[in-house]
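## Example pair
The file below holds two records. Each record gives the amino-acid sequence first, followed by its structure token line.
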Amino acid sequence: MVKILIANRGEIAIRIAKTCKRIGIKPYGVFSDADKESLHIKYCDDAVNLGGFMPNENYLCIDKVIDAAKKLDCDMIHPGYGFLSENHKFVKVCKEEGIVFIGPSYKAMTLSGDKVETRKIASKVAETVEGEEVMDQNQASRVAESIGYPVIIKAAEGGGGRGLRVAGSREELVNLFLLSKNESKISFGSDRLYLEKYVANPKHIEVQILADYDSTVHLGERECSIQRRYQKLIEETPSPTLTKETRNEMTKTAIKIINEIGYDNAGTVEFLYKDGRFYFMEINARIQVEHPITEEVTGVDIVEQQIHIASCDGLTIKQEDITPKGHAIECRINAENPITFAPYPGKIDQFIPPIGEGIRVDTALYEGYSIPVFYDSLIAKLVCVGHCRDEAIDRMKKSLLSFRISGIPSTISFHISAMNDDEFLSGKYDTSFINKMKPFSPRNGEIAAAIFSLLPTKLQFIKSKEFRDAWIRGKLDFYEMSYLSDNWRWST
């Protein structure tokens, strides 16, 4: 029987393990000293302790992951998302050790991970935003003057929003250039940067791709425009903005880009969309956090297809087999202060997720579990599906209101506000959504009470001039006015 090592943790490890067991594959796992009580271990037939607490001591340590695979006699490794999932060196080591990497080939991973080279190839078949790689501040200034401000600085070999900075003038560019360079070096081991014209307030839309040695298919697009600091918070499919004609053009373009690169396995082609035009942005060479909404509307298990492709069995589906039905929305529930979005690890006293038709919750939480401080703050993905967008939104609103997580604050209340925001309801929102969003809670509702009972008693840092978070600006007065009648005040 085939054995797969899941080189990840938390909800994505559980999600991969479920598919493995369903198709008759034994899932094996790894964990850190901080994850000895993690639920994902129980979904694996066996697991190896990688030791340590920080990611570079365990989940990012190639040698330890490979040793674990050998110890457990695993044939394949699934990296999930994050950690080593887009590390071309890891792909190469897997091949050298005779272990099948469930993802793109070394060549495709290396190419897709280099934003500069990917842009060059994609520009043959798609429109791209003007820009180029820059080596130093002087060159960056010359390029910026040529294409015009504002510009955005990006890590050439990075992703996940790290290293990104927007400069509106030469002075800002000079100040931000070294910050991006240093962050890129720390995060990705490379300080290569490139500069491009900043497209203000676009929509962020991605196309899900599956490709093997013989064919390439798409599973439609996902709307990912609701973000904070370039981190996605809410996703939905299909996009409420795209026309049928634009959707067809975008998905066909995505397939052309994938074929030009020679990409294989699962990945997404990312686009910026504004004023009826879309621009290629980058390729994400892994399974995405938001993949469940695509699975719910297409009925395709993306992890299963990844395994088939990596096993050289190839895709078991054709484009004509894929007929998306309905609408799906995902809310990323994070262990964070719902207003400041500051990470907030701690012990879970109560965890009662919503259940019912059209509801999916991917999580590794349980009552009594202590969220470690060393990893991402994502604790659950709430997915709601409906026959239409309105039904999906209505189901999401009810699910959020019934979701019970106590012991730590979460972003559930933020999502409730988002689901009731007029701009979201209209579907016309873009990446500036969070800056314009208005807080919401039912009259005398429990949600508002839950928010404030969990806030720190000292909030001067929010009111200080140094604090620039757009979600908070203008919110304090709203809350004071809204709850004045209940004798509620900010605690000082």
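Second record, same layout:
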Amino acid sequence: MHLAVTPDQLCLGVVGMEFFDRAPESLGQAHTRRTWPIEETESFRWLKGSRLACQLAAECPGTPIVSIADREADIYDVFVDAQPASPRADYIIRAQEDRSTRERDPAAGPATYRKVRDEVGGSPLRATRTIELGQTPKRAARQACLELRALTVPVKPPQARSSLPSVTHNVVLAEEVGGPGDGTEVSWLLVTTLPLETVDDLRRILEDYVARWAVEIDFRTLKTGCRVEDLQLETNRRLKNCRAFYQIIAWRVLFLTYLNRTGPTLPCTAVFADSEWKSVWRVVSQRPLPKKPPGLSEFLRLLTQLDSYNNRATEDPSGPQPIWIGLRRMTDFATAWLAFGPTTE
């Protein structure tokens, strides 16, 4: 799945989806698949995603396009494929493999090469940055202070792809200092085509990568809110159609969550129909309708109260769960409003 997200994590829409099925005979062959042509593996979806970003860059020449992906996209073929593309979308990919540079490491052995992580880790400190880490099953939400180092380094192809040419990586190493000591400290090695010249360049790369968290929230909405993993349909086609339909719902939840943070003063009518906001207003507030539609932030406070969200003055704007539950109940109220008429208006 490929989402279009602004640096503020406002999800603008879904630009692509990939479906694939795993044949039983292919299970347990991960090591063998490393030597297959990229087009014959599941990893090909990451290469297609990179090409999709380049296509968007061609269609939107005045808009910077950055393809951001987690460790699964650390595939050497993606880096090679991106080299000649023009116009080209930039990318930021969190490294999973500790790749080798083209420089040998005599201290480690005659056939050993220096590692990218060691090279950038030994480079001078360039900047520090504090970011907000969201809650996950493995860690509590917290602020993390990161030290940033960066380097441009030529990289040799992996042994399984030795026929491919060497590429040059711009690499940013973000390591947490003063962490909780529970094994959840941040240590991100980010490979990118964005420049590394200034401190602002490094901070932009880090903040753009953090925006990738919107994808995780989207997945949580699909799995927990829409419960797509519980679907039991008779055919693959029906399952895919239902999955695509639920993706629209998940996008809207994600869009409203972050629009409330980036544009709270927008009128709620920018994204809600009259039957939606008016019915929720009457049910929750028990007051006559206002002469002017409420702002988005004010209305979402009412909407999320349908999930018993407290909306205390000291609390941050609600996350996606109270919104998706509120939207479900709002649909019933809006249907009744349209069916029986706004008799209390």
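Notes on the second record: The first strand starts at residue 2 and ends at 5. Residues 223-340 form a domain with the Transferase Inhibitor Protein From Tn5; Chain A, domain2 fold (CATH 1.10.740.10).
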